[in-house]
């Protein structure tokens, strides 16, 4: 079944626009819809954690037919701003809801706020990032806080960082999502392994090569934060789990994360300097 999944996703990608690095949004949506019906998507090597440890972590769901289906995790970076994966979301911004302050992705948290607008870095392998502007402000407290963003050219290669998400906790094809938030310490490589495996899809300027030899992530961790606590005592968001539908990989390989510092100027421009890198 895994071989069939990869073949279908690769075929979808091959059918995209002529540019070798750009994906048509309809292709992204089709690949995401197909992968949403699959399993084997996991936070491997992690364990449960309370939301108060990473209070910027939120779940994003898509409203449809009276329900709301989990689509991605995200991070609070301002009282009206959420940062997540662009490939995980569609273009209808008003159909998304963000749950704040919850250990469980499928239960109401302290706050539930509708999206007002979604801004995309682009629909391509190396632009897998989106900003959600909320319809109302987040009330900050012990279960809801903003994470800081690192300045450009932050040195992250060959270091470790923490990841949080709701993906599966094993690589079993029949696994289900973890209902409770999980954390795992992950290794950030120098990009050589990802360059070798992903070829032209790899862009070391806008991506991080994470995991693969130990704790790692897959599809249902998409949008989740990769973070480090710096000497000033604050946590900083260094990466977000990319949409692995782009790469058609399983849970045994290094995961491509979006590198946050590369997008600092874009984030500051979209938020009109409400959010800035430090």
Automatic annotation (TrEMBL):
<dbReference type="InterPro" id="IPR009003">
    <property type="entry name" value="Peptidase_S1_PA"/>
</dbReference>
<protein>
    <recommendedName>
        <fullName>Peptidase S1 domain-containing protein</fullName>
    </recommendedName>
</protein>
<keyword id="KW-0732">Signal</keyword>
<dbReference type="InterPro" id="IPR001254">
    <property type="entry name" value="Trypsin_dom"/>
</dbReference>
<dbReference type="GO" id="GO:0004252">
    <property type="term" value="F:serine-type endopeptidase activity"/>
</dbReference>
<dbReference type="InterPro" id="IPR043504">
    <property type="entry name" value="Peptidase_S1_PA_chymotrypsin"/>
</dbReference>
<dbReference type="GO" id="GO:0006508">
    <property type="term" value="P:proteolysis"/>
</dbReference>
<feature type="signal peptide">
    <location>
        <begin position="1"/>
        <end position="18"/>
    </location>
</feature>
<dbReference type="InterPro" id="IPR051487">
    <property type="entry name" value="Ser/Thr_Proteases_Immune/Dev"/>
</dbReference>
<comment type="similarity">
    <text>Belongs to the peptidase S1 family. CLIP subfamily.</text>
</comment>
<feature type="domain" description="Peptidase S1">
    <location>
        <begin position="43"/>
        <end position="272"/>
    </location>
</feature>
<keyword id="KW-1015">Disulfide bond</keyword>
<dbReference type="Pfam" id="PF00089">
    <property type="entry name" value="Trypsin"/>
</dbReference>
<dbReference type="InterPro" id="IPR001314">
    <property type="entry name" value="Peptidase_S1A"/>
</dbReference>
